[in-house]
Amino acid sequence: MSNKIKAAIIGPGNIGTDLLMKAMRSDVIEPVWMVGVVPDSPGLARAQEMGLKTTAEGVDGMLSTMREDGVQICFDATSAYVHAENSRKVNEQGAVMIDLTPAAIGPFCVPPVNLSNAVAERKMNVNMVTCGGQATIPLVAAVSRVQSVSYAEIVATVSSKSAGPGTRKNIDEFTRTTSRGIESVGGAEKGKAIIIINPAEPPLIMRDTVHCLTVDEPDQDAIRQSIDDMIAEVQKYVPGYTLKNGPVFDGKRVSIYMEVEGLGDFLPKYAGNLDIMTAAGLRTAEMYAEEILAGNFVPSAA
Amino acid sequence: MDLKGKKITVHDMCLRDGMHPKQHQISVDEMVTVAKAMDAAGIPLIEVTHGDGLGGASVNYGFPANSDEEYLSAVCGAVKNSKVSALLLPGIGTVDHLKMAVDCGIGTIRVATHCTEADVSEQHLTMAAKYDKLDVVGFLMMAHMIEPEALLEQLQLMESYGANCVYITDSAGYMLPDDVTARVALAREKLNPNTEIGFHGHHNLGMGIANSLAAVEAGATRIDGSLAGLGAGAGNTPLEVFLAVCDRMGVETGVDLFKAMDVAEDLIVPMMDDIVRVDRDSLTLGWAGVYSSFLLFAKRAAKKYNLSARDILVELGRRRTVGGQEDMIEDLALDMAKERDKIGA
Known about the structure:
The complex is a heterodimer of chains A (302) and B (345). By secondary structure, chain A is an alpha/beta fold. Chain A has two domains: 5-128 and 279-293, 3-Layer(aba) Sandwich (Rossmann fold); 131-270, Dihydrodipicolinate Reductase, domain 2. Chain A has helices at 14-23, 42-49, 60-66, 80-92, 111-120, 131-144, 165-169, 171-184, 220-235, 272-293, and strands at residues 5-10, 29-35, 53-55, 71-76, 96-99, 125-127, 149-159, 188-198, 206-214, 240-250, 253-261. In chain A, strand 2, helix 2 (42-49) and strand 3 form a beta-alpha-beta unit. Chain A is globular and about 60 Å long. By secondary structure, chain B is of the alpha/beta class. In chain B, helix 1 (28-41) runs parallel beside helix 2 and helix 8 (239-249) packs antiparallel against helix 9. The chains are: A alpha/beta (302), B alpha/beta (345). The interface between A and B is medium-sized, with 34 and 29 residues.
């Protein structure tokens, strides 16, 4: 029996290709399919060179053989508009769907905070929130696990070059989805998200600011320790996740200033916002794969 | 310069841009009093929102005394002839805020992005354009940071999403009259003739009036200002001064000059926590090309970490920060303080 779980990546764009490069290094995931819709797309050509089966017929082009090819995990790196349909189709073939689009039809998953819940509950679709959510929700959770947070706000600043057309066409989705994640996964009573796009050259590395307002006076030592521990967890899959300044304590305000540098697999290093999505998606898949390999979980059509 | 007979619409910013120097603490009563007096003076358009636009209430920008909804519904209900506008910055506010503002009775929505990022406004401008009779304005901030040709492309995007008026916005108060002329003239030449062009100035280099006149000469028909200059940095173009100059030059604004002067002197100046003027730090904004609302944040960080606000602002300019990056200021101040302590040790 193979010691890796086979996976398909839907969407051969920048995100899908970066994910592929990361997945090729995984001990428990083996990417076998790359699914696109444009026949001469460079992403499909690259995947083919790397030995994957490819189709330009969308998910339908893979469906008939995905079971015999052993695909048990799929990643969707396309768009929110087609995600629900993609998810339904691959779920029917018994594969778990990891959603990197903002569709958010499945529960939010931020690996160091609630990944084990998703796996324990055998969810067949999990959503990776947003890039800003992956970068900041762990820190909101780091504060809220020490004491109650009445309000948490994040400001994600990304370089112009790393904000793709999907994000730009529906920027409200970023603010709404991230706000919800700050509440439901981060544990803040109320969440707010702000995104700033900066066109400076050379492109700036993703920056994130997290402001939490605690209900009682902040326990400074405990919060510092909790933040350090959480950053170490995220660094396991995003080594460039760095505390720049803080935590600053000002009354009941706790402010944390972060920088997120990517690994530079396919995406440039400054695009830490995209890297943290692909890394978190892969981390999620690996946790599912470990459960499957251990015989604790058999993904199946609902 | 011959501007005789030109007709323009002036747009007052006291109750939106003026929220910055007031740290967003203007009360609903003050807003209503000011708006009624502006209405009586014949000011056609009055902007009312959190300084950072709809949804700006935040740790990052400051929590306002009242919600946008409370301000807008009170002011919209108080004015007779003036129209009320609201500002929206995608990434901070959403279409939900836009709908709320329309329900409150605004006549104009202004959707603002950094000058290179017009495409993030598509969602909001497209939706706004579906409302009958809503005046839909695109607003490109920090317009000094790109050349006129590049700016034109972004203005054309906003026009294509449904804006019937587009603004060239000198958020840093950095532009000189020739910069304004080049940008407005090219836009006037290339945009649809029915699309109005506006100019929003800041007075950080004392150029608010001169820049606004240059804009009118090059074809702009909407000019932002604020009575007594209540706005971020050294304030907006001081509106009563601009109105007096327009009067001398024969530019038609429809505003009663003396009444406008009285609102400035009797209502706006007494509201100021500190007199809004060109001082060392606001002058630095204009000189270094920095977003005007960074002023008070830089002053506070300078005080807290024992630094110079001018040094902080110059560095923010060097890093080419854009509107909305207020969170950079404490982060940068912490870096500068660390650097200083390292050298001192």
